[in-house]
């Protein structure tokens, strides 16, 4: 039963934990939030779950899980009646996996690399490789063209209905909007507006 599920979320607003909070809100699941600003990264409780001490991480009924896409998928499977993800073993579930892999391999590495090489939070300025930013921008936009074509025919990623697949992608597209990479992608921006307008969206439109 849903009421028996015990969830503890380790989170910090700007991180990928926003995906997990959004999914939990859409699922209607109660959860305990553990957040203590940047000090959370030094938390032994977090390190016990994530070997690198990164966010997000969760305990679900005492079982640990990290990586936002894995957590969001697990959350959706807890509430099949909410239809937040395609059923296991269905072809639509394969499409969920496809778009998650696409997001995390063809889009996210490039905006993350730009951020790492532009801000002092991860690496000090003297270790930045600013020359890589134009290449990051080019490769991100190249992948975005595939999404632009998809959203010329579809409102959402899978089965033309909202799912956690969209939550995973939306975070990465919001990142691209913040870096001014998607100004010329009208279909993507319309898609993002649909998501920003959802009651439980945890992202802020740049």
Automatic annotation (TrEMBL):
Residues of the GST C-terminal domain: 89-206
Source domain of life: Bacteria
Keyword Transferase: yes
UniProt GO molecular function: transferase activity
Keywords, sorted A to Z: Transferase
Gene3D superfamilies assigned to the protein according to its UniProt record, in alphabetical order: 1.20.1050.10, Glutaredoxin
Domain GST N-terminal: 4-83
Family: Belongs to the GST superfamily.
Protein name: Glutathione S-transferase
Source organism: Pseudoalteromonas rubra
């Amino acid at each position: 039963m849903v009421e028996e599920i015990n969830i503890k979320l380790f989170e910090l607003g700007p991180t990928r934990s926003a995906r997990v909070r959004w999914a939990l809100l859409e699922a209607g699941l109660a959860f305990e939030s553990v957040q203590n600003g940047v000090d959370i990264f030094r938390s032994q409780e977090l390190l016990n779950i994530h070997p690198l001490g990164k966010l997000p991480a969760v305990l679900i009924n005492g079982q640990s899980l990290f990586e936002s896409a894995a957590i969001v998928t697990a959350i959706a499977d807890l509430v099949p009646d909410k239809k937040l993800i395609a059923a296991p073993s269905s072809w639509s579930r394969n499409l969920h996996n496809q778009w998650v892999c696409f997001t995390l391999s063809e889009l996210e590495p490039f905006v993350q690399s730009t951020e790492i090489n532009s801000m002092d939070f991860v690496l000090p300025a003297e270790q930045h490789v600013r020359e890589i930013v134009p290449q990051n921008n080019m490769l991100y936009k190249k992948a975005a063209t595939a999404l632009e074509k998809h959203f010329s025919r579809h409102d959402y990623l899978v089965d033309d209905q909202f799912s956690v697949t969209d939550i995973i992608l939306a975070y990465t597209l919001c990142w691209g909007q913040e870096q001014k990479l998607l100004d010329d992608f009208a279909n993507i921006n319309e898609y993002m507006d649909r998501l920003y307008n959802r009651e439980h969206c945890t992202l802020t439109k740049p």
